[in-house]
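Continuing the batch. This is chain 6 of the set; chains 1 through 5 are on the previous pages. Same settings as before, nothing changed between runs. Recording input and output for traceability.
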Amino acid sequence: LVAEAVAIRSALQDAIDLGLQKLYLVLDAAALTQAINQKKTLSEIHGILHDILNLSLCFEEIVFLFVPREANYLADNNSLRDF
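Output for chain 6:
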C-alpha cells in the first residue's frame, strides 16, 4: 500500500510538471482508491495521502479508478497484443 501511494504521489507530481490538466489513474488497490476518493485517512500512509489529495487539486479533472489486478492484467495484455 505504501509503495503504491508513493508511486501515485510521484505520478501526480510528474503530471503537474508536464502541464497535464486531466488525469485518469487506474489503481488495483481498493483500500487506497477508496481512501483517496472519500478523502479518508489510513494511518500507515496518512502523510502520503495528504500529499496526493493536495496535488490532485492542481488538475482540472482527475479520476482515481479501482480495477482489480486480474482485470487490469487482461486489459494490459489485450492492448499490447493489439499494439
